[in-house]
Design brief:
Layout (H helix, E strand, L loop, with lengths): L2 H12 L11 H19 L2 H9 L4 H6 L5 H4 L5 H6 L10 H22 L6 H29 L5 H30 L1 H8 L4 H10 L14 H16 L4 H10 L2 H8 L1 H7 L4 H30 L1 H25 L3 H28 L6 H57 L1 H4 L22
Helix pairs in contact: 2-8, 2-9, 2-11, 7-8, 7-10, 7-11, 8-19, 9-10, 9-16, 9-18, 13-19, 14-19, 16-17, 16-18, 17-18, 17-19
């Protein structure tokens, strides 16, 4: 093999535009395939299952109750420590992360197959159990995938890697949901769900090809009951011992409240404004999908140009402003141009935030406890918003009207923005950073939080 052959991959990447080059590296590309497998279980118990139950003649009250299966994702931190500390017999020879990727992937495939084989018309209770099992298996797969992604990426790649993971998640969920609908119309729901189980394979194959992440730190060997118990609470005590950790947790809990409140009521707004289903499909689903993909790309660009801290702050501000555009739409009245502009801005802002904020949360993890800590962080990001939206959003709309409601959601975004800015000024972003956000020995001595500053 000559020198030209050896340097071909690097020469190929060097010819790419600078903004695209980070996405072509092997670790971010692997993050894409991990995201595909992460997104599909969510689709199986989301809109896809809702459509199946509706077509089977199940009443609307029972159909909406199935959304409780998603609560499992908010509880995944309770068993994430198992993924960090428990070795799998035989498969464990492949490595801690790879072995869990294989096992969790097989569990998801089995759970989806089980959901395929139950009949909602004869046993709605067993269908509910099957949906919860998919939720448990999917949440476990998420735990492993997130840990593998964080440990595979170098600190400088967290932005591009988060972006590729977001691309994969969105494409995986949309493709699985679309495939299920197409196949169900031709060969039935059972065959459709069984076919969709193949979406678990990309992450499993990625683990086998890429191997164990170089930055993974082996779990401490358990020598007794005390050590085993400490392995459960140790990841959480480590996090809260950092300087500024409680403020970081407060930011995690607060930063998405306005966004979550706004998103839950969006379809209600569009329906009440008189938009047709076709218009909603074109502008909310169609324009929104492509705008979100553009936002993901832009998020990776600003992360590499501005660094972690400033890119997160910019994204938070844009996401807050996007809620204000909904108030403008409600005030101006229904126009297709207005809806297109709002959907474009909102989804670009969401895509950018999905990259920069996820990269920041990834950097907070200690590499000894990646699965446990990221599971806690990701669960905390949505739990307050989901609780508030489920208990107050409808009443607030009825009380204040859409314009004032969306102005309120804009104001609700301000505390998260201000808190992050104050944390930046006080140096708490740096002091609370985990080892996942810091370069290892032998690399350039630079923390990811300092890039671009």
């Amino acid at each position: 093999m000559n020198d030209a052959t050896l340097t071909a991959p690097s020469n190929w990447r060097s010819r790419l535009p600078g903004s695209i080059r980070p996405y072509s590296e092997s670790a971010p590309l692997a993050a894409f395939f991990l995201g595909v497998s992460s997104g599909f279980p969510f689709a199986m118990i989301g809109a896809t299952l809702t459509t199946r139950l509706s077509q089977e003649g199940i009443d609307k009250k029972s159909v909406t109750a199935f959304s409780l299966a998603f609560l499992v994702y908010n509880l995944k931190f309770l068993w994430a420590w198992v993924v960090d500390g428990v070795r799998i017999p035989i498969l464990g020879r492949l490595g801690q992360r790879v072995s869990w990727l294989i096992l969790a992937g097989l569990l998801v495939m089995a759970a989806v197959a089980n959901l395929a084989l139950v009949d909602p018309t004869t046993s709605l209770l067993y269908t509910a159990y099957a949906a919860v099992l998919v939720g448990v298996a999917g949440a476990t797969y998420d735990i492993v995938i997130d840990a593998y992604r964080i440990e595979l990426l170098e600190p400088r790649q967290l932005g591009a890697g988060s972006g590729m993971s977001q691309y994969g998640w969105r494409i995986g969920s949309v493709a699985a949901g679309g495939l299920a609908l197409v196949l169900a119309a031709r060969v039935g729901w059972e065959a459709a769900y069984l076919a969709c189980a193949v979406f678990a394979l990309p992450a499993m194959l990625t683990g086998l090809v890429a191997g164990e992440p170089k930055r993974h730190r082996e779990p401490t060997q358990k020598k007794g009951l005390g050590e085993a118990i400490r392995s459960i609470y140790g990841p959480f005590t480590e996090f809260f011992q950092r300087h500024g950790a409680w403020l970081v947790l407060l930011f995690i809990l607060l930063h998405k409240i306005g966004d979550t409140l706004g998103q839950l009521t969006l379809r209600l707004l569009l329906d009440d404004m008189g938009y047709t289903n076709d218009e909603i499909a074109i502008y909310d689903v169609g324009v929104g999908f492509w705008a979100y993909l553009i936002g993901i790309f832009l998020g990776g660009v600003i992360y590499s140009k501005l660094g972690m801290k400033r890119s997160v702050l910019v994204s938070l501000i844009l996401m807050g402003v996007s809620n204000f555009t909904f108030a403008l739409l409600a005030q101006a009245g229904p126009t297709n141009a207005g809806l297109a502009a709002v959907m474009l801005f909102e989804n670009i802002a969401s895509g950018m935030g999905g990259v920069t904020v996820v990269a920041y949360f990834s950097a907070l993890c200690d590499l000894r406890f990646t699965a446990s800590q990221y599971a806690l962080i990701s669960a905390a990001t949505s739990i307050v918003g989901r609780f508030l939206t489920g208990t107050t959003a409808g009443a607030l709309v009825e009380s204040f009207g859409y314009v004032n409601f969306y102005l309120l959601t804009t104001v609700a975004a301000v505390p998260g923005i201000v808190l992050f800015w104050l944390m930046m000024r006080a140096g708490l972003i740096d002091s609370s950073m985990g080892t996942a956000g810091k370069v290892g020995e032998g690399d350039a001595r630079k923390d990811v939080s300092q890039e671009g500053t």
